[in-house]
Amino acid sequence: MDEKYDHQKIEQKWQKFWDENQQLFAADEKSDAEKKYILDMFPYPSADGLHAGHVESYTATDIVSRYLRMKGKNVLHPQGWDAFGLPAENFAIKTKTHPSITTQKSIATFKRQMKMLGLSYDWSREIDSSNQEYYKWTQWFFLLFYKNGLAYRGIAKVNWCPSCQTVLANEQAEGGVCERCGTQVVQKDLEQWFFKITDFIEDRPSFAKATDGRRKTSGLISGLDKIDWPEHTKAAQKNWIGKSEGAEFQMGISGIDKKLGVFTTRLDTVFGMTFALIAPEHQLVQELRDKIANWPEVEKYIVETKKKSELQRITEVKEKTGVELEGVKILNPFTKKEMPLFASDFILAHYGTGAVMAVPGHDQRDYEFAKKFNLPIVEVIKSKIGKSSIEKEAFLDDGILINSEDNDGLTSEEARKELTIWLDKNKIGKKTINYKLRDWLISRQRYWGAPIPIIYCDSCGAVPVPEKDLPVLLPDDVDFMPTGESPLARSKKFQDVKCPKCGAKAKRESDTMDTFVCSSWYYFRYADPHNEKEFVAKEKIKKWLPVDLYVGGAEHTVLHLLYSRFFTKVLHNLKLIDFDEPFLKMRHQGIVLAQDGQKMSKSLGNVINPDDVVAQFGADALRMFEMFMGPLEDSKKWDTKGIIGIYRFLERTWNFISKIKNQKSKTQIKNQKLENRIHKTIKKVTEDIEMLKFNTAISSMMILINEFAKEEEIAQEDFETFLKLLSPFAPHIAEELWSQLGHKKSIFTEKWPQFDKNLVKDETIELVIQING
To answer: How far apart are CA 693 and CA 67, in angstroms?
Structure first.
């Protein structure tokens, strides 16, 4: 045995062993043991390789997977590559190298680093979303949605990045800039493909084609109640969906036979309306053009609004802007009073009716708008308890109605009910529900993505590609440099086809799919990655799905996670699966910050490269350090002193082997105190892994090593128990020391230690005391 702990030699030895014995970590299709599906979020293989955040989340799922295998579970722990998309294409454009080449190079780097970290993936199930064997089924999903009325083509205002020359989803244009290149996003009308995600916001019965009376599919809102996810993630999804219950009613426009529809969640405040607001892009604004006295000013405002993304319009903390439509007055149906109409960019045409009643006394945005434009502010709700005032800000709570004609004295809740009945009775309004969530725009005018399987024929219109003709292959001879049209439109070889219906000359759809389509179903494919006849066989779905534990970054809250839930609900609704939530338990890892507390970035020169850390300290030390830094979900600062401490702990562990080998006796009289500590450690580490509290599990193992150090002799059996506890965290050193103790098989073929309940109880003694005689 080597006297010194040589992490490089040990880790290379055992990585080679695991590579040659991959069945150790392979999911067993024939086993009847309880399945556990442990999954990382689909990684995009960037040219930069793994970063500290990857190491954190991947180590967490690896610990759980190794632990569960030793507990006798049948574990599916796969890995693959979210290889399509803008980042890969932008990098290819920058380097003037085909994205298939740069992507495969990046995948090779990621895979090398993952093996370097000792991650126990089942590599026999590796998938790559840019491989035709995978995107054939991405295209199959598109056809499934299309045939069931869930994919449609429509004209809509979209976020357009002039630099990337592509449409961006709302989530990719936060702050009004492109998330990839930082260019100001503009609004543009384009005909695009959409998925009807809004059909699944609420619970829904099976499709009409389903005649077996299956239970309903839970909606994107209600389904959150039955999954073990962080509450802030659930709240973020609910906020993104943006469900609002309220009333919609019509207001007259003076002098013309037109109506303005408005939606409100606070009908109880309608007597405090002093003006109305309309989206600048609302069709009615154009229809009122001849009546608007200051049309040039209004038109200029419309043009300025088009330069802003929708997210920028509704989330910017800025002074409210707007322009009055002079010459136009609207009529409040409750008070019969005329009031001005303003166009303002924080009103969106697609949300509700695209117009709102403005009640500055009881809505803060309206209050700020009224202050800027010197408009009346009327108090119509007073607090139920204490005093309320609208002198400095709007009063937002429910309360008691005042200055509201015959409705004075009603509570807000009573008034909303009564006034909604009045609207319905007079046929000018009704109770309604609105949502912020829009249908998912999936078209991309880019090259590096899955082609949309649609053919356009002058006679037949849009015709789906027959399933037998899938995949529609991405041509490899296309100039992918951005020009404003899809690169695929420049390939005559790709474009020109015959119509599958009538045989006439036709053209293929030249847009590709949003890469989030690829990542919305990948977790299914791991269950059956080489199936050429189905996206996954039914028996494989039944065996492995849904995912038991999902770990990844919180930045995917309203993108990937929402879309994946949507896909699963569609499959459930179509009777293809018997569950409607893909990830039963999900946790986010926190951000690993640089030593100075800043976010790691290449521009700041503070990025931690796992290759460098592993070379200096070893993979086991890096794994344990990232788990020891703090709770998994918390953000934490990198500290080189901390990893030195972990390395010393591993050295101490290493040095015990010579102590055990040099002991005179192989068995010792049991030390009751040490025995208690061992069983408490088994209990603590077991429970902490189950709860993903890896930092405290490591602390308990450090305490046990300290107890070992106090003893002159240690039973080999006790040290072996410790190695089993350590093995999911530091697999290389655990394998080596296990081997040094004479074992021929891998430590990962061993059973997880069990604790004795009688040995984990704290001792108590009874004292008889006498007080004051």
So the answer is: 13
Enumerate the CATH 3.40.50.620 domain ranges in the chain, comma separated: 7-128+521-612
What are the angstrom distances between the C-alpha of 380 and each of 268, 477, 752?
Answer: 9, 67, 67
8-state DSSP, 324: E
Question: For residue 358, what are the β-bridge partners?
Answer: 275
The class that CATH gives domain 244-434 is alpha beta
Which residues is 551 bridged to in the sheet? Answer: 40, 587
Q: What does the alpha-carbon distance between residue 263 and residue 412 come to, in Å, rounded to a whole number?
A: 17
Q: What tokens appear for 704 in the block?
A: 């046990």
For 42, counting Cβ atoms within 10 Å of its Cβ (0-12 exposed, 13-18 middle, 19+ buried), the class is: buried
Q: Cα separations (Å) of 223 from 195, 568, 578? A: 19, 11, 14
Say whether the peptide bond before residue 546 is cis (omega within 30 degrees of 0).
yes
Contact 163, 181 (CB under 8 A): yes
Q: Measuring CA to CA, which residue among 35, 104, 47 is closest to residue 71?
A: 35
d(CA 2, CA 579): 53
3-class state of residue 256 by DSSP: coil
- Specify the pairing of strand 549-552 against strand 35-40: parallel
SS3 content of the chain, % helix, strand, coil (to 5): 40, 15, 40
619-623-629 Cα angle (round to 5)? 140
The one-character DSSP state at 762 is: P
Q: Where in the chain is the domain with CATH 3.90.740.10?
A: 244-434
Q: Within its chain, how far is the Cα of 163 from the centroid?
A: 26
Mean pLDDT by groups of 10 residues along the chain of 773 residues: 86 98 97 98 92 95 99 98 89 88 96 98 98 98 98 86 77 73 83 96 72 74 97 95 94 92 96 97 94 97 83 68 97 96 92 93 95 97 89 95 97 98 96 92 92 98 98 90 77 94 96 96 99 98 98 90 98 95 97 86 81 97 97 93 96 92 67 90 98 98 94 90 99 98 97 91 63 54
State the sign of the Cα–Cα–Cα–Cα dihedral 738, 739, 744, 747.
positive
Number of neighbours of residue 369 by Cβ within 10 angstroms:
22
Paired with 127 in beta bridges are 80
- Between strands 592-593 and 636-637, the pairing is parallel
DSSP letter, residue 753: P
Question: pTM for the full model?
Answer: 0.90
| Amino acid in the structure at residue 119 | L
In the chain, DSSP finds a helix count (H) and a strand count (E) of 23, 27
Q: Which CATH superfamily groups domain 7-128+521-612? A: HUPs (3.40.50.620)
